[in-house]
Amino acid sequence: MVSVGRSLDFLRVSSAIGDTSSLWLHFNLVHPVAGGGYPSGLLKAGVAMTQALTLRPGRCWACGEPHLRVGDPLEHIVASAIGGVLTTDRFASDCNERLGRLIDQPYLRDPFVAIRRARHGIKDPRRPRPPASPRLTATTSDGRSVIFDLADNTVFWPPHFTEDGARHLVTAQNRDEARRAVESKVERLRRDGFKVRVGQPRTVRQPDDPVEAKFTLSMDSFLRARVAAKIALGAFSLVLPEDWLDTDEAKLLQSWLWDERPKTEDGGVIFAAPRKVPPPIDTLGTPPKHTLFFLPGDGRGALFGIVLFGEELMVVRTGPLDGRPPENAWQLDPIARTCKETSFSDLALRGAGVLPNDRDEDDLLPFQED
Ligand SMILES: [Zn+2]
What we know:
Radius of gyration: 25 Å
Largest sheet: 6 strands, antiparallel
Strand content: 15-25%
Bound molecules: zinc ion
Helix content: 10-25%
Oligomer: single chain
Number of helices: 6
Distance between the termini: 44 Å
Shape: elongated
């Protein structure tokens, strides 16, 4: 039995050896460590580039400036490495590049994202292998190390050594591991000039009481707001008129892109912990699909919902809109690397089982991969 509860700054995991059921379900209880940092990405230095400076019409949705150029790369609205094949050409090249470094790369290092990518086998198309399972080392109250593989919920106890006078004891998960640990220990002791006699292995009964181990998951609590702003601005660039960029909401979302500590409109601190998708939104798409959708609006404009991996919800506002709020929705399948353009009502009806769930191939937009 594994139970995970919230405590001040770590997840508490109680586990009996070998049984690792419901770790995942409780993950949204994690308490993010405020301002927990990540190493910044390495910059590629010394790359000489020549670029045509021909401007093209329109403004960049990341900063509002008219600095779009012919040849700007397409911006992936959801990061390409997590299957985001929906793109916009409304981001200027240097904003695109900076956002990749400031937002997409840290987001890919986030432990929850790493777990989901490993668990669902979501490959970065630019890399040959699927991402490795994220692992955490924790220490039990009696000082033993335990390793959690967070993607497949396995628990691994590395061999443990205790000394009792001249006697060394090795405890391991099974005989093979014990034997290997003994062999390397004996080799080291003999190299140091000790005479060593190896005793017979014994099977020790596992303790019935769950063992408690503590570990820390560190997470940038501002990053999710910035990810939401980037995805929203990208999606809005596909459906909202360009003069929306002059609204307060546009400027607020843009400020989140560039501010390491984004603020709400009244200057409050944003504390964006991963938020579980509540019903009925959870029926819009099965994990690990990403779903982006406009919710029917009111006088303050539409709400824009972002469900990543089918498991984490973020919502932003468009602010007041001149015309009718858009009804577009997009569903991205990070395994098949497809994007389906649809609407919230269509997704809701399918989620509720009112409409059948299979769709014709021609609903799949022919988005290009890099
Ligand atoms: Zn820009």
